[in-house]
Amino acid sequence: MEHVAFGRTGLRVSPVTLGCMSYGDPARGAHPWSLDEESARPFIRRALEAGINFFDTANVYSDGTSEEIVGRLLNEYADRDDIVLATKVFGRMRPGPNGGGLSRKAIMTEIDHSLRRLGTDHVDLYQIHRWDPRTPIEETVEALHDVVKAGKARYVGASSMYAWQFAKALKAAELNGWTRFASMQNHYNLLYREEEREMLPLCADEGIAVLPWSPLARGLLTREWGAETERTRGDAFGGTLYRDEDRAIVDAVGAVAEGRGVPRARVALAWLLRNPAVTSPIVGATRPHHLEDAVAALSLELTGDEAAALERHYTPRPVAGH
């Protein structure tokens, strides 16, 4: 696997990231479909064998147990210096007025808890998990800068927000000499392309790595329309992101996949990877073929006609996922 530049930094990452929201205690948090440690083990091992060096989790996934499981398995199977480990901060982790958010107190508290759960003295990428309207962005960016200077994170990143908000965060860092955001983890796939209007051009212009989450639209792009899984039945957030009109796009993915003789997931990921602004889509894996399809998509080149067929039915829609 050929690794790619992480935005304007010197860091090199795999062109596919293993999203670790899928791994955690299913009895804790909001992901009852998540895999426990023994079930997650083969996926971490196979990802490493395939050349994936980038692993993304968050403090809030499965109430912190995702970090615990991912940390233990990576410590078992990998050399810490060979992997790029990312986590996030923002979501509520405990009751009380300071149990979440992006205040200095929350960030300084949560980085230490994340490091303890992950079993490491630093993360490679520390990301704000959304925009916090209650905290001045200057407070957040300075706190992140201090986390980096303390050696607890190597780079900082952001996730879904409006482009004007991200521009404001970048400017705050520039004006004060604080650590610059290196990445944007945003909602982008064939069923949700609103990021093409402002966020992706901003990231391309600023040299920001783009790490799309839900690149397969919670699995909708991998199967026939209307098919249910254990995750779709328990994924309340996913139910707010897409709409019935998306069936035409899903059918187009199926047609291209049938014509190529490959699984739909490979086609949907190959389309995403055509965009030069995209650095490394975050792919979840709960079955062996999920990882195999993600890796195989790297070598699938769609024709212009195929890409046009996939894009033809898209219509503008409200912002979703912030």
From TrEMBL:
- Identify the Gene3D superfamilies for this entry: NADP-dependent oxidoreductase domain
Domain NADP-dependent oxidoreductase span(s) in chain numbering: 16-314
Q: Name one GO molecular function term.
A: oxidoreductase activity
Its keywords, alphabetically, are: Oxidoreductase
* Source superkingdom: Bacteria
Q: Name one Pfam family in it.
A: Aldo_ket_red
User: InterPro entries given for it?
Assistant: AKR, AKR_Detox_Biosynth, NAD(P)_OxRdtase_dom_sf, NADP_OxRdtase_dom
Q: Mention any one GO cellular component term assigned to this protein in its UniProt record.
A: cytosol
- What is the name attached to this protein's record? Aryl-alcohol dehydrogenase (NADP+)
